[in-house]
Amino acid sequence: xxxxxxxxxxxxxxxxxxxxxxxxxxxxxxxxxxxxxxxxxxxxxxxxxxxxxxxxxxxxxxxxxxxxxxxxxxxxxxxxxxxxxxxxxxxxxxxxxxxxxxxxxxxxxxxxxxxxxxx
Length: 119
Hints:
CATH topology of the largest domain: Arc Repressor Mutant, subunit A
CATH architecture of the largest domain: Orthogonal Bundle
Number of helices: 5
Strand order of the largest sheet: 1-2
Helix content: 55-70%
Shape: elongated
Distance between the termini: 30 Å
Number of domains: 2
Structural class: mainly alpha
Largest sheet: 2 strands, antiparallel
Strand content: 5-15%
């Protein structure tokens, strides 16, 4: 994975967000085993403690669970994953509409521009 991290926000939150996107997009399917903390930390170039904090956030969000014998697993609850996916989509929509509003577009005009962009 190509980890994109910036200095403007805590690294662990950025890691948690990127892992969340991987889960909701199906890169890590429901019920699948996540790589170990050390594997993920190495691939991201961060301290394992930082990655552990990100994974703990995934657990708090209900997207992952620890299993002593088989490691950390993605939840197999599709309702939880779908709800998180929808919440992320709504956040992106709000950000888009706010940016378009600053350009003077209404929500309807912004939606029309999206439709035109699909063609």
